[in-house]
Amino acid sequence: MLKTGQIFFRNSEKAGDCFAVDNLSDGSFEGCVIMILAGGKVDKRINDIFDYQEMEDRLELQTNYCNLIRREFKDSGEILSKNPSGARFHMDRHLLVSRVPVRIATEFSIRKHTTILTPYYHRHEFYELMYVYEGIGRQYINDDEREAILHKGEACLIPPGTIHAVMPIGQEDIILKMVIPTEMFQELWNHEFEAKGNEVRFFPVPMNSDGSVRWLLTKLLEELYFDDGHRDSYKQISVKSYLTLLFVALTRNRTDFLENGLLYQVSRQIGYDLKHVQLREVAENMGYSPRHLERLLREKAGCTFSDVLQKLRMDTAAQLLTETDDTLEQIAEKTGYQTQAGLYKRFCAVFGMTPGRYRRLHRDE
Questions:
Q1: 232-236-239 Cα angle (round to 5)
Q2: Are 351 and 136 in contact (CB under 8 A)?
Q3: Which ranges of 41-181 would DSSP assign to H, the alpha helix?
Q4: What is the distance between the alpha carbons of residues 261 and 250, in angstroms, rounded to a whole number?
Q5: What residues pair up with 180 in beta bridges, in sequence order?
Q6: Backbone angles phi, psi at 273, to 5 degrees
Q7: Based on the number of CB atoms within 10 Å of its own CB, is 191 exposed (0-12), middle (13-18) or buried (19 or more)?
Q8: Are 31 and 185 in contact (CB under 8 A)?
Q9: Using an 8 Å Cβ cutoff, are 246 and 213 in contact?
Q10: How far apart are CA 257 and CA 299, in angstroms?
């Protein structure tokens, strides 16, 4: 689970208006894909690109399905033999473990995850980095029954071979997916991950971060989509340089957020009893006094125990709204709120919409 992240530039108000994009609509290339959620207003030129991608995906799925499958899937022949008219892939991971569609790609790209795309389990021959620019992003990864939720500013790196399904997004969500070919990823950043296994890597952003991630994403978008007459001869070098700096910024954020595994341990302890958890109990289970644990959280992660607790409660509430028919009163009870009014007020502050609207948006998709 990730948190809104910004790295700090002095004129970060401008940088805050940056955005990120990805070149893979849904999935896989022979490289990496990045999806990201972030905040701030989107530059009109970038917003026009996102609108065009929405139209492009809708048109291609309706009129050019076979060519799309041949271009983006390794096992296109088998897929088309079973889905000749564009039938949706199955969402049961247990039926597809050895036959999950495999997406491919040979070029670096950034693209918005568009609203027409439906969820299906797949894997890819590349890394996929997901970044949330606005709203939230939801997906299921491997055999985990729990939904992985990314909030504005958070990112997630999906390595080759990982089975996952990206859930539908709302009209107000902007999820960016960056496709990074495997060779390119290994050239730029493999040394950081080669000794740490092939696990999914989440990139939270410390609460005192500054906006550099968004700024770097904006620069990458400019290189890919805008030509001022001087970019062509330097584009490849520029893209690799910005991408390297992006990984540095994300990794620094992750290091700050997860130093000594502190936040992971606190989050895990809270998850055992979200309704009744208390700072004192968590501190005792971790071998600290309550005062010492609070101090460590402030020093290491720039947040408080209450901040972590509220984030986990909001993540759980969002998941229950999407996946169950529980009433707001029932969700409030499950997430530790004494009244549904308290949950309602907090939810509106975090997500910028009422719980009812959030449920309709994500159910309709």
A1: 110
A2: yes
A3: 44-63, 65-72, 76-82
A4: 17
A5: 127
A6: -155, 75
A7: exposed
A8: yes
A9: yes
A10: 10
Count of beta carbons in the 10 Å neighbourhood of residue 69: 18
Q: What are the structure tokens assigned to 121, written together?
A: 């389990």
pTM of the model: 0.62
Average pLDDT over residues 234-239: 88
CA 260/CA 258 separation, integer angstroms = 6
Closest to 150 in 3D by CA, of 353, 316, 4: 4
Reply yes or no on whether the pLDDT at 95 is more than 80. Answer: no
To 5 degrees, how large is the angle CA 312–CA 211–CA 21?
A: 85
Q: d(Cα 244, Cα 254) in Å, to the nearest integer?
A: 15
Element (H, E) at 139: strand 136-141
Whether the per-residue pLDDT at 311 is higher than 50: the answer is yes
Task: Look at residue 28 and tell me whether its pLDDT is greater than 60.
Answer: no
Token pair listed for 57: 């995906």
User: Is the model's pLDDT at 15 over the cut of 50?
Assistant: no
Instruction: Return the residue matching tokens 């409660």.
Output: 313
Q: How far apart are CA 201 and CA 162, in angstroms?
A: 11
What percent of the chain is modeled with pLDDT above 90? 25
148 DSSP β-pair partners:
139
**pLDDT at position 327:** 94
Q: Residues for the chain: how many in total?
A: 365
SS3 341: helix
Q: Is 106 helix (H, G, I), strand (E, B) or coil?
A: coil
In our burial notation (b when 16+ CB lie closer than 10 A, e otherwise), range 123-146 reads bbbbbbbbbbbbbbbbbbbeeeee
Kindly tell me the burial class for residue 34, based on how many C-beta atoms sit within 10 Å of its own C-beta (0-12, 13-18, 19 or more).
buried
Integer-rounded Cα radius of gyration of the chain: 20
SS3 101: coil
Q: Where is mean pLDDT largest: 77-81, 123-127, 146-150? A: 123-127
